[in-house]
Design a protein that fits this description.
The chain is mainly alpha-helical and about 230 residues long. It contains 11 helices and 3 strands. The protein has a 3-stranded antiparallel beta sheet. Helix 5 packs across helix 7. The longest helix has 22 residues. It is globular, with a radius of gyration of 20 Å.
Length: about 230
């Protein structure tokens, strides 16, 4: 367990002065009264603040709505669970017998909550100044993927608005296939637009990203068809 904690801190990019804080952050409520729920509450606020701060400083021309949508896409439960998997956090979570039997180590809600708790523990162990570079490094690939000219609406939102503006039904997303191991799953999602006789797929290492990929392809097909028409 000790070696595992050392490896985890190396992956996190943060070394705890108080190891007990990290152990508490990894303890799910199914283990009893001493659990990570309070740290989760604290970490949730820290993540939201630091991502908000980054978007505010980096994209001076972005509207409140654009920043809100971008932040929501980056820090929702599914996105945080995906990040927790990248850090191999699930292997270190302490679970009660019931939660363990139900596959708690792989559940999005438990992974996301534990990641928030770890951030809360980092804040108490250090301070906000120390948390900032660590957290931004975790999110770096996602932050770097944001458009250089500013943040905007994601593909699913733009597709929805395109259809609503034309009085058409909303798309239906169907999970077609999941391949790979628990730590490296790949999702294939289909986006159906029966009114347009269109069915496009997207593939990614999270269901959320696969849906966005499928929505982007569907929107492109509709826009190209609209231009030809």
């Amino acid at each position: 367990m000790l070696a595992g904690m050392v490896e985890l801190q190396n992956r996190l990019g943060y070394q705890f002065g108080d190891q007990a804080l990290l152990e508490l952050a990894l303890t799910h409520r199914s283990c009893g009264a001493r659990n990570n729920e309070r740290l989760e509450f604290l970490g949730d606020s820290v993540i939201n603040y630091l991502i908000t701060e980054f978007l505010y400083l980096e994209f001076g021309s972005a509207s409140e709505g654009e920043m809100t949508r971008t932040r929501a896409a980056m820090v929702n439960g599914g996105a945080l669970a995906e990040l927790a998997r990248e850090l191999n956090l699930g292997d270190m979570i302490k679970l009660g017998p019931g939660a363990f039997k139900n596959g708690g180590r792989h559940q999005d809600s438990i992974l996301a909550d534990t990641l928030e708790a770890v951030v809360g523990a980092m804040l108490l162990d250090g301070d906000l100044k120390q948390c900032r570079p660590v957290l931004l490094e975790w999110f770096r690939p996602r932050l770097d993927a944001l458009p250089a000219h500013g943040v905007g609406k994601d593909s699913k939102t733009r597709l929805q608005e395109f259809l609503q503006g034309r009085g058409q039904p909303l798309p239906h997303y169907q999970l077609e296939q999941v391949t790979g191991g628990s730590h490296c799953q790949e999702f294939l999602v289909r986006c159906d637009l029966p009114e347009f006789k269109l069915s496009l797929t997207g593939k990614a290492f999270s269901r959320r990203k696969a849906e966005q990929e499928a929505a982007g392809r569907a929107l492109q097909a509709l826009q190209e068809g609209n231009e030809k028409g």
